[in-house]
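Running this now, will post back.
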Amino acid sequence: MEEKKTDDEVPCVAAAAAALKPSPAKVEPNFTAPYGPNVHVSKHPVLAHKLSILRSSSTSPSSFRAALREITFHLGYEATATLTTRDIPITVPATNHTDHIDAIGQKVKEKVALIPILRSGLGMVDSMLELVENATVHHIGMYRTKSLVSVQYYNRLPKVCDVNVAYVLDPLIATSNTIISVVGILKKWGVSEIHVLSVIASKKGLSELLKHHPDVQITIGRVDEELNAEGDVMPGLGDAGDRLFGTPIIHDDDEELLHPSKRKRTMSTDIGN
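Update: finished.
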């Protein structure tokens, strides 16, 4: 039986209906490309929340690793949207648990390689493998000198390139010298499509990367405006490799942590005792 409303209840109902009107605010897309069609910068609120955890000085190495994995999965999900699929035959179990139904499924067509830049890129590998489980992983080790020159010290690329798409993994793009070098190495290796995946990039580093490699796809979580004289992104997130693995800073007076050749000479070592 329908409940009858009194005249006194009508204004309250009208007020409640007005309160339920949709908000006129425009919902913005999660990714924008203000730096050109090949650069995708996340605007997702959850990623912004996770990024604050990653940046924070109070975040422990274990929490840092967890946040980096979650952010990488979010960015990687968007970055892999350009992959294509091919049809494959599959069977689906019926509800009676005995019969199987023929169906058409999809499988990623491209051969994918993940290229983590040592060390910090290692923290992004597991999340990407959850997305593209059949991807191969090839490591490239780079370090930066005090003059901001990137030097390769490790390379495990196979002699023959057998992949179609390579995803370069590095949490930070600072001067972009390292990324520029690695992309150049991959192009020489023979990869036809390269996608850079990073959590934070400096505005200057991003511009330099686009200047040298305008054809590369880039997916990042945030762009920081400042790059200091030492080539560090500001505010950035610190040394990603050290924070990822809890590596302590080695000072000159911590001689027990130094190689013998780097330790200060003493009178006993001078006389051979």
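The two ends are 103 Å apart (CA to CA). More later if anyone needs it.
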